[in-house]
Amino acid sequence: MKLKDLFKFAVKNLTTRGLRSWLTVIGIIIGVAAIVTIVSIGQGMQGVITEQLGGLGANDVYIMPGGGMGAQMMGGDAFAKKSGTLDDRDIKIIRSVEGVLAVAPDIVGMQNVYYSNEMKNTYIWGTNPEWLIVRAGSMESGRFLMNGDKGVAVLGNKIAKEGFDKEIYSGSQIRIENKSYRVIGILNEFGGFGNSAEDGSVYLTIEDAKEYSMFDEDNYYTIEIDVDPERIEETAEKIKQQLMISRHVDENTIDFGIITAKMITSTVDNIMGTINFFLLGIAAISLIVGAVGIANTMFTSVTERTRQIGILKAIGMKNHDVMIMFVIESGLIGLIGGIMGMLIGFIISGIIGEISIYALSGGAGGVAPIVSIPVWLVFFSITFSMVIGIISGLIPAKNASKLQPVEALRYE
Amino acid sequence: MNKRNKMNKKIVLSVIDLKKIYDLGEVKVNALNGVTFDILRNKITTIIGPSGSGKSTLLHLLGFLDKPTSGKIFLDDKDVSKLNEEKLADLRNKKIGFIFQFFNLYPMFNAVENVELPLSISHVDEKERRKKALELLKLVGLEERAYHFPKQLSGGEQQRVAIARALANNPSIIMADEPTGNLDTQTSHEIMELLVKLKEHTTVIIITHDLGLTKHSDKIIKIVDGKISEMK
């Protein structure tokens, strides 16, 4: 029989068994819709997080002292074998490395900030003018810190606007403990989920910030470095080697950690990958159940249609044609289930995307959707479910083709 | 041309010492115990016998639905008793037309699609097979009902569709298994008239236990206990 005729035959067989065919299709729809939803949300989340990390500056390299709190928080401590400190000598070495574009050391403390009779406990950062370059930040008003500044502060966007009842503008005076500072600039929002630390912090010069430091006066919490985007890893390695030489340490006694934004991103990717893998596993189970449903339907179908198969064989239909006919039927169930499951998955993830935008922005908009639908997913889900349909139908189809015409005709 | 060749031209099907033994494990059933006969072209041969006589087994063997345990079957002078399933399917499609007691139409297909089935199996293209199928339905007097489904047709009408389907590939032989067994007297009579008419186009073998069908026959073979007890 011609393939076109077998195809028509299969379609007719499926449509006459309407309800049963649809129930089987639904089994596949659920599996595929679950996979599509999970993958598109997973991809979207990954995209959003990567974008967030991009805010740190994709070409950034971070140096942290061994045993330091910053190192522990950012995972850099994993690279340091001993505890150590970072100071101006290290800055000098780093600046001398080729490919380094900007270097910003950080001091961090937590203090009470006062503004018009209100008090707020927040992060105080001490850094240098290059920080703005390293973080790829920009000013909403005023200017950032400059060399030689004294008694001035730059504010993160959130603390300026929402930190106190009255908004703080450039030119306002704030107080940290008992010292007064003039606000010279407000940063643009770094954005992201919830409140990012950068948007809620106060920035001072290193000299001013020293007295608020959580650590020893001359030690830095981290050194942030902006490097040539063309050779991030290479430059990071050079910095590491130079620092090791100047600090007289080797790989076994290394007392600082060095990480790149790429390392953080890949850590996040790993975590997201694990979560996605787990969720996909659950979705795959539902797809397997769907496949078992197809196999079951096809087995029942072969039994129910034994006599019909007998008729077809009596008028000369060949075994392999009978087999192909059944495989087309099960493949079609998979294909239709795949297409519909994909569409429903897209609708569900679209709805979740809308909800997430609303939830994260409080209805104000401006937040990237946490759902993204990759093109490969469209092709994958359709092909995959069709293949599942074909595989589930293989054994029943084989059974159908092997039926003896005489026995099949006798079957009541 | 010698006499033997002339004779062969008239014989469409030749059966020599055909045996069929069903092996049921502990017991062996000799369903057919060595039968030999010829079927002549453009004649009606009726095979009669009580139930259990082996006549259905014989029909299955003659229609290539089953393989004999021993013995030979010649179709158009060719030994077909050892062919494989693929070749047998081909023979069933092109050389044999089946008519069953319970019509055995394909329920998902309407009348004309049922008649087209053997043609689509033998790769006849769409236009041609529709044309042929409609012609055949006209021959059996059912052109008005061409687009009705089996369940919308009466028993007699369904059997007419089955006859049209059996004729689709211009077969050498029409095998009719109790063709009137499920029909009332009037309809049975009409179907028999139709089968008699088919003699002009092809050879008809009727298997029945209804002695009434034998009056149209050119040859009657009576089977009892797997053997020919009478042939006239």
How would you sum up this structure, described in words?
The complex is a heterodimer of chains A (412) and B (232). By secondary structure, chain A is α+β, with helices and mostly antiparallel strands. Chain A has two domains: 3-54 and 266-410, no CATH class; 85-254, no CATH class. Chain A is built from 13 helices and ten strands. Chain A is elongated, with a radius of gyration of 32 Å. Chain B has 232 residues and is an alpha/beta fold. Chain B has a single domain (41-69, 84-231), classed as Rossmann fold (3-Layer(aba) Sandwich). Chain B has seven helices and ten strands. In chain B, the strands form two sheets. In chain B, strands 6-7-8-3-9-10 form a six-stranded mixed beta sheet, with helices on both faces. In chain B, strands 2-1-4-5 form a four-stranded antiparallel beta sheet. The longest helix of chain B is centred in the middle third of the chain and has 14 residues, at 126-139. The relative contact order of chain B is 0.20. The chains are: A alpha+beta (412), B alpha/beta (232). The interface between A and B is medium-sized, with 23 and 27 residues.
